[in-house]
Amino acid sequence: MSRRWQDILYSPIYALFYLLAFLPLPVLHIIARALYIIIYRIAGYRRKVARDNIEKAFPEKSTAEQREIERNFYRYFADYMVETIKLLHISDKEIRHRMEFVNAEVVDRYTMQGRSVMLLLGHYGNWEWIPSLLMWCKRSDTLVSGQIYSPLHNKWFDRFFLHLRSRFGSVGIPQKETLRRLMQYDRDGLVSLTGFMADQSPWGNNVHHWTTFMGRDTAVITGFEAIAKKMDMAVIYVDVELVKRGFYKATFRLLEDNPKACPNYDITDRYIAALEKTIRRAPHAWLWTHKRWKVTK
Question: 62, 127, 71: which is closest to 278 by C-alpha?
Fold first, then answer.
């Protein structure tokens, strides 16, 4: 289907999102409660996957406790959806009030010296709000900010999410173009500040390393570590915390200053350990509907 016909077909959806985004966030959160009933109680969206993941990640918890995490996750997932739509109209003032970044000076220290930075995070909290970090960091004419993403099969939704993610001036970099794009930035004399969401499962022959994550043998993505070593990027973990409904705090924590000197997979293991600590602090805000453990050892 051509782009023109996709735009026509999905125009009612965009119009709905556009109008909803004008509503104050507290009102959208009320709508999210109805959305929770639809996706969890009625449709049961990936409920079997989420339940299996939670049960295996928290075997020490009772069934009642596991189900509470499950319900809270779907309630939060509905919040995430309406908060993401809100990006269409949210003001700089409101996003800065709701999305706080702590220790931004650790990022500035490297970018102001002309050193590119890799930001590692997971599908935790509202990751669609993370690009607003540019409002907290020092800007320069040579700084380019971006996030690595896997293009969606639905081209209309792919363009829609790229539009949302560019709201604060960052660019989307398709996963397969990551190294080529970062090397081009370097050749052009640009300093890159790039976000990698590295908590997904590797595919097929891309399994190069296993670690322990949430108490389970887990195949992990390692390409980001190879890129950090090749590009000599400072590696920083973004520790996201859900403060209260609609409010987040993200703390920049230096993971590695000299990646070339690290043993293979050391950075990967430290990132996974940091992410697990984040998840266990408040497990309902992680994306449990991922088929994270589809690769078995």
Answer: 127
What is the rounded CA–CA span in Å between residue 124 and residue 206?
A: 24
φ, ψ for residue 119, nearest 5 deg: -105, 125
Answer yes or no: pTM beyond 0.85.
yes
- For residue 115 the two structure tokens come to 């050193």
Q: Name the burial class of residue 107, with classes exposed (0-12), middle (13-18) and buried (19+) by CB atoms within 10 angstroms of its CB.
A: buried
Cα–Cα distance for residue pair 36/74, rounded to 1 Å: 6
Q: Are residues 107 and 75 in the same domain?
A: no
Residue that finishes a domain, picked among 68, 89, 110 = 89
Domain annotation covers residue 85: yes
Taking the chain (297 residues) in runs of 10, the rounded mean pLDDT of each run is 76 93 98 98 97 96 98 98 97 97 97 97 96 93 94 89 90 94 97 95 87 95 96 98 98 98 97 98 97 86
**Distance in angstroms (rounded) separating the CA atoms of residues 118 and 253:** 12
232 sits in the region (left: phi over 0; alpha: psi -120 to 50; else beta) called left
